[in-house]
TrEMBL record:
<feature type="transmembrane region" description="Helical">
    <location>
        <begin position="201"/>
        <end position="220"/>
    </location>
</feature>
<comment type="similarity">
    <text>Belongs to the guanylate kinase family.</text>
</comment>
<dbReference type="InterPro" id="IPR027417">
    <property type="entry name" value="P-loop_NTPase"/>
</dbReference>
<dbReference type="InterPro" id="IPR008145">
    <property type="entry name" value="GK/Ca_channel_bsu"/>
</dbReference>
<dbReference type="GO" id="GO:0004385">
    <property type="term" value="F:GMP kinase activity"/>
</dbReference>
<keyword id="KW-0812">Transmembrane</keyword>
<keyword id="KW-0472">Membrane</keyword>
<keyword id="KW-0067">ATP-binding</keyword>
<keyword id="KW-1133">Transmembrane helix</keyword>
<feature type="domain" description="Guanylate kinase-like">
    <location>
        <begin position="1"/>
        <end position="183"/>
    </location>
</feature>
<protein>
    <recommendedName>
        <fullName>guanylate kinase</fullName>
        <ecNumber>2.7.4.8</ecNumber>
    </recommendedName>
</protein>
<dbReference type="GO" id="GO:0005524">
    <property type="term" value="F:ATP binding"/>
</dbReference>
<dbReference type="InterPro" id="IPR017665">
    <property type="entry name" value="Guanylate_kinase"/>
</dbReference>
<dbReference type="InterPro" id="IPR020590">
    <property type="entry name" value="Guanylate_kinase_CS"/>
</dbReference>
<keyword id="KW-0418">Kinase</keyword>
<dbReference type="InterPro" id="IPR008144">
    <property type="entry name" value="Guanylate_kin-like_dom"/>
</dbReference>
<dbReference type="Pfam" id="PF00625">
    <property type="entry name" value="Guanylate_kin"/>
</dbReference>
């Protein structure tokens, strides 16, 4: 099955929805445990919520090619290691990635066949309430996250990037919507390898390239082939 990439501003409820999925379907979904240079919040467990590492170790592992993607988010480095995704898919589970917009763009560029969903807040005021209500960030970190949220929100309108945008107003409704997205874009779509992608879309790409070449030749020859 294709991995599911879940994107959205900090405090919107991504972690809450992911926890609901894992609670209801513990054998079906596995979380890709990212690396981060930020410190753990109370209750966060190393190796479960994140792999908490220092900047030097993270930069070394990035240089050694261990990461599928990484990004500087809210003044820290976050990244998805190849090993994190592999450990979920090896267990036969659907891999859930909770990553930021930059990370999602990089995963898409990597060619990994995945589904993408953006979780949006009902309003920026409500996002701020949730971020502050969670009580995990100091004031300057809250302000930084809110500032970044405004940029991240623009990403949901990029045509064709996301398979779905879900507004997390009522959490149960958002969860139902997420399960529908999974049915449509994950359950019914086995992951394609690079070879399979080439077999499926290669002939179409070749056809388009030929048509462009012929049109260019006709144009250059003043209307003759
Ligand atoms: P994220 O993982 O996107 O940073 P969280 O899942 O940690 O966000 O949620 C941030 C806060 O908002 C948490 O306190 C959570 O309980 C709360 N929350 C999540 N969804 C909703 C919702 N639909 N309505 C109200 N509060 C919510
Ligand atoms: P938090 O510090 O609140 O756990 O996460 C902050 C932001 O970092 C969130 O938007 C989250 O999705 C993002 N994030 C978490 N892990 C990764 C990762 O591995 N890669 C990227 N690019 N972003 C991540």
């Amino acid at each position: 099955m294709r991995p599911l990439v879940i994107v959205g501003p900090s405090g919107v409820g991504k972690g809450t929805l992911i926890a609901m999925l894992q609670r209801e379907f513990p054998d079906k979904f596995g979380f890709s445990v990212s690396h981060t240079t930020r410190g753990p919040r109370p209750g966060e467990v190393n190796g479960v919520h994140y792999n908490f590492v220092d900047k030097q170790a993270m930069e070394r592992d990035i240089a050694n090619g261990k990461f599928l993607e990484h990004a500087h988010v809210h003044q820290n480095i976050y990244g998805t290691s190849f090993a994190a995704v592999k450990s979920v898919t090896k267990a036969g589970k659907i891999c859930l990635l909770d990553i930021d917009v930059q990370g999602a763009e990089l995963v898409k560029k990597s060619g990994m066949d995945a589904a993408y969903v953006f979780i949006a807040p009902p309003s920026m005021e409500e996002l701020e309430r949730r971020l502050r209500g969670r009580g995990t960030e100091a004031e300057d970190a809250v302000l930084k996250r809110l500032e970044n949220a405004r940029t991240e929100m623009k990403s949901k309108d990029v045509a064709g990037f996301y398979d779905a945008v879900i507004v997390n107003d009522d959490v149960d409704k958002a969860y139902m919507a997420l399960k529908e997205v999974i049915e449509r874009h994950v359950d019914s779509r086995p992951a394609l390898s690079t070879d399979q992608l080439l077999t499926r879309y290669g002939p179409v790409a070749f056809g388009i390239a030929c048509a462009i070449a012929i049109a260019a030749r006709v144009f250059m020859n003043g209307g003759k082939l």
